Amino acid sequence: MKGEVLNNLDNPRQLEKLYRENKVGFKREFNLVYPEIKENTVAQFWNERLNFENEGISWGSKDELLFVVIASCIAGFVAKFPKFFDINPEYFYLRNIAFIFFPLLIAYFNWKRKVQTNKVVLTSLAILASIIYINLLPKNDKSDTLILACIHLPLLLWAILGFSYIGGNLASPQRRLDFLRYNGDLVVMTTIILIAGGLMSAITMGLFQLIGLRIEEFYIEYIVVWGLAAAPIVGTYLVQTNPQLVSKVSPVIAKVFTPLVLTMLVIYLAAVVYTGKDPYNDRDFLLIFNALLIGVMAIILFSIVETSKNSNNKIEILMLLGISIVTIVINSIALSAILFRISEWGITPNRLAVLGGNILILMNLLLVTYRLFKTVKNRKEIDNVEISIVSFLPIYALWTTLVIFVFPLLFNFK
């Protein structure tokens, strides 16, 4: 988008189009390039427009607000399907929890980004095929492939959401980065919404209890469930219409948690050695080890995205490099443990899924670490770190698709 801003300074109509397609991304890229073009009158106008500190909260257009209200109601209604249609809740939520809000978020960005009709049809067919497929899988609570498919399905829908967010433009690394930033902002905003909602719920039920009315069951069934379903949709709406709400929070979180995570990982590895925990023969410990790996990988991605946008501090880059190196050590231990278990007890759906995921994460980490090492010497290399992150997103999506659709057939639904 940086090049598009520079190339269209003399074309106000095209600049406006770029801005409306992606307000958050446009503002960030414009601010990066503004020092080079600050003598330009058009650039000065856009600088004032984009960086005017609006003290109020924007509620967007009436159409946007109406869309969010309707989408929230639909999400709550889908979440109550087991109650309304006498469906086994365990069966429904295991297979369909991701369909409560992901399709609505995808529809929102298809609409906001004015995605081409053929791509809208493609995403719609992918969602429909996923709904039919996951609900037609044989009902077997002991099936590893069913559990794996259900676990990976939200990741597939997340990938489809990313496709809609970037407007179907797979060739743009910058738009993929915008999508990762959106996810970080959404986590922050949704957490705030849930905390506020939890406090309000506790106060409401407490007040009614004081006057002798027990509304807990009704409130949880019809208010809390509806609110949980709507939270990601409302959070997305607020982040997109008011990017300033969390634009200063996310960098702070990244700066605070980066040194804490690095310290925790070093201490944890030392504790593993001290306690003599054996991931090679302790299956539960290996599962926790892999969960830690995924969580740390997510923190690395979030921190790099925020650091590249806001910081010129070399110490932060060094800490990110340290986290990446320690995480490679954790990944290597987990990977060797999985290979050991496969060599000793053979291939199972779970072991193969974890093996593939760990190999992909290790490859991604090695590339990110190499780019971070170069960034320590040259700050401009941070752009290559970003590219090394987003270049793996389609590969993760492909592996997720294989686990969902191929593994059950490959292992005969076992």
From TrEMBL:
It comes from Hymenobacter volaticus. The chain crosses the membrane at residues 65-81, 93-111, 117-134, 146-166, 186-208, 220-240, 252-273, 285-305, 317-340, 352-373, 393-413. The keyword Transmembrane helix applies. The keyword Transcription regulation does not apply. This is DUF4153 domain-containing protein. Keywords: Membrane, Transmembrane, Transmembrane helix.
